[in-house]
Amino acid sequence: SSGTHVPVLVIGTGYGGSVAALRLAQAGVDVHMIEMGMAWDTPGPDGKIFANTTQPDNRSYWLRTKTKQPLSNFLGFPIDKAVSRYTGILDAEEFGGITVYQGRGVGGGSLVNGGMAVTPKRENFGAILPSVNADEMYNIYYPRANAGLGVNTIDPAWFETAECYQYARVGRKQAQRSGFPFVFVPTVYDWDYMKQEAAGTVPRSALDGEILYGNNYGKKSLAKTYIAQIKATGKVTISPLHKVTSVAPAAGGGYTVVIDQIDTNGDTTATKSVTADKVFFAAGSVGTSKLLVTLKATGALPRLNDEIGKGWGDNGNVMCGRANHLWDQTGRVQASIPTGGIDNWANGGAFAEVAPLPTGIETYASFYLTITKNPNRAEFSWNAATSKVDLSWQTSWKQPSIDAAKTIFDKINKAEGTIYRTDLFGTYKIWGDHLTYHPLGGAVLNKATDNYGRLHGYSGLYVIDGSLIPGNTSVNPFVTITALAERNIEEIIAADL
Ligand code: FDA
Predict the structure, then answer these.
(1) How deeply is 246 buried, as exposed, middle or buried, from its count of CB atoms within 10 A (0-12, 13-18, 19+)?
(2) Is the distance from CB of 469 to CB of 128 less than 8 angstroms?
(3) C-alpha radius of gyration, the chain, whole number
(4) Which residues contact 373 (CB under 8 A, 6 or more apart)?
(5) Closest ligand 1 atom to 37 CA
(6) Is the CB of 468 under 6 A from ligand 1?
(7) Candidates 32, 210, 438, 490; catalytic one
(8) How far apart are CA 398 and CA 281, in angstroms?
(9) Which residues have CB under 8 Å from 337's CB, separation 6+?
(10) Which member of 15, 110, 151, 169 has the lowest number of beta carbons within 10 Å of its beta carbon?
């Protein structure tokens, strides 16, 4: 409530925020977490907490009146539909040149993501976080993050026979026939649960196409891992449907944090002001960058340095589909959790996940989300005319990603005698080049902050989320975000408390 004083306030409940809150609580500190999205702990009218991907409803999107599905078309026809405005789970946030998808709610991106939990190859780490000691990361913090997140790998024998991974086996066969290594991707899905789904003995979630709008059963989102541990400490308060709008030095020391309480229409119902000795920005790459850029430009935190807002990248995300021959069916039932990828990073700068198209019908398509070595970096800036934060990314900056993805799929198409699908992102449009699932950067480690996330210019302010990572992780990012947060919070607890 207004006027309260807290030792530590954490903005956001995704990976970075959850690691910070847990380790601080375990060190004996009382923590207050502020989350703009909903708690996602109560079933809707259909008895389920989360909506299905094939039937989006008001729960699916953050304050939209029409869905904004990443795959906007099927057989060329637009598939978006009207929904009622609500504080739903997936935010499709539109900037000038890119739509950035993000999770909203307690658990952040862990609520909506595909659960692929990938540690980058050691040889690539120097390019990802050049100022971080790789030995420490690979010996201590990556293992700690993997354990904390419950990362595990599919039973390879089951993979060979499971109907729901027919699409991945087709993807593997075609990759290997073109000479590309196919690698299993670790995940945070409960594989025993998926086996039971396949056997028909439990309610289905991965096998019912649940992804993007939440997963009702088998995925170990943060709610089942770090946040469950956070709750068990008894030292952390979580306030959902509360949005931080300002952080500024307080007269008597510490920081004044201004917070809007919102209802499920997104309207502000109360504005509160609390003081905190320390504040952790964990609102995600976009959320943290927008806050810091605004606070610097509007005079609340003028001493933040000129690196604020810079170094933002899209992790090189680009999507595409391929049309298969009629004898290469990918299957009517496709597990929504991808479990393998095509690794051409060293030669082509591309790592392609073999992704599902969980439509419930045979699509004769293979679908891929490719992570590429795209060198373009954008900047967030304050727009005084609109009182909003802009992002300088341009759609044409995806061309290096398309070129990298083509090093894989042109070759596969040639070997297989197949073609790209042109009906998934519009009419006659091959590349899903308008979006990212993996925003990274905006408050880069060792630039906007010191080498542990302490913001330059203000003691007691920290960044501890994906905005620390300068634009690319070579694989899916949440394990690296978690491991870096584990590293930084250990140093901060030892030195600053
Ligand atoms: P994260 O975004 O998780 O959390 C930030 C939280 O802060 C959010 O809950 C937000 O609502 C809240 N917030 C923002 N502003 C606020 C404010 N002003 N006040 C209060 N709260 C505020 N990664 C991966 O490794 N494997 C995968 O398979 C996938 N798949 C995938 C699919 C889809 C559809 C998406 C959208 C994303 C993925 N990702 C992924 C990406 C992954 O989910 C992402 O990188 C992490 O969630 C980022 O973690 P952070 O801790 O940085 O922020």
Answers:
(1) middle
(2) yes
(3) 22
(4) 316, 345, 349, 350, 400, 404, 472, 474
(5) 11
(6) no
(7) 438
(8) 29
(9) 114, 115, 116, 187, 189, 194, 206, 211, 218, 219, 356
(10) 169
Helices (H), 244-333: 284-297
Interface ipTM: 1.00
Which helix H or strand E contains 273, and what residues bound it?
strand 268-281
What's the rounded Cα separation, in Å, for the pair 323 and 255?
56
Measuring from atom 8 of ligand 1, which residue has the nearest CA?
108
What tokens does 428 get?
């006659």
Tell me which amino acid residue 309 is.
G
Q: Identify the residue whose C-alpha is closest to ligand 1 atom 16.
A: 283
As to burial, measured by CB atoms within 10 angstroms (0-12 exposed, 13-18 middle, 19+ buried), residue 233 is middle
Active site residue 353: yes
Rounded distance between C-alpha atoms, residue 25 and residue 28, angstroms: 5
Q: Could you tell which of 15, 151, 380, 389 is best to mutate to test the pocket of ligand 1, judged by most ligand atoms within 8 Å of the CB?
A: 15
**Token reading at 290:** 């927008």
Place of tokens 């998926």: 194
Find the helix or strand (DSSP H, E) in which 102 lies: strand 99-103
Compute the distance between CA of residue 21 and CA of residue 445 in angstroms, rounded to an integer. 20
Element (H, E) at 245: strand 242-249
112 lines ligand 1 (CB under 6 A): yes
Residue 206 and residue 358 in contact, taking contact as beta carbons nearer than 8 Å: no
Q: Give the chain's largest Cα–Cα span.
A: 72
- DSSP class of 222: G
- Give burial (CB, 10 Å; 0-12/13-18/19+) of 450: middle
Q: Find out whether 315 and 127 touch, Cβ atoms under 8 Å.
A: no
